[in-house]
Amino acid sequence: MDNVYRSKDDVIVEKVNVSKKKKTNKKKSASVSVVKQILNGEFLVQDYVVQNLGFVFFLFLMFLLVISKGYYSKGLIKDIETTQTDLDAKTAEYVESKARLEEVTRRDVLVRRLTPRGVLETTKPAKVIRVKREEE
């Protein structure tokens, strides 16, 4: 009865507002219905899902491959880090051993250690003998 005294424009504005409210309620009920179908599993028996079941399985397989690839790469990274740590340890051991060998085989150390055994240092330089080969 309130609409009787209002102008036509007011009534139209009021009708538009009412129709907007109805649309938002439909959207909410539609989203609740979709969630309900997913939770119940009803969407799995609909025609478009049944027709595209091969594609759904393909997507599922792709997801499994992506997950397994992630685990595989994490394992590989762990192996690489372990190998790199071992390599660093071996390199340090090699450098240390080489330094000790160079220290022990220095000329003055060898002369000092071998003199009591009767091995003396040579005073004559070594001679190089070169043979010319005939070219055939």
Question: Secondary-structure blueprint of this entry?
Answer:
Layout: H1 8-40, H2 47-51, H3 53-104, H4 107-114
Helix-strand string: HHHH
Fraction in helix: over 70%
Low-confidence stretches: none
For the residues shown, what is the average pLDDT? 82
Rg of Cα set = 45 Å
Please report the total strand number as a whole number.
0
Largest sheet, described in full? none
Shape, per Cα inertia axes: rod-shaped
Number of helices: 4
Percent of residues in beta strands? under 5%
Give the N-to-C terminal Cα separation: 128 Å
Structural class: mainly alpha
Q: How would you describe the overall organization of this protein?
A:
By secondary structure, the chain is mostly helical. Helices cover 72% and strands 0% of the residues. It contains four helices and no strands. The longest helix is centred in the middle third of the chain and has 52 residues, at 53-104. It is rod-shaped, with a radius of gyration of 45 Å. The termini are far apart. The model has no long low-confidence stretch (mean pLDDT 82).
Short description:
By secondary structure, the protein is mainly alpha-helical.
Keywords:
136 residues; mainly alpha; 0% strand
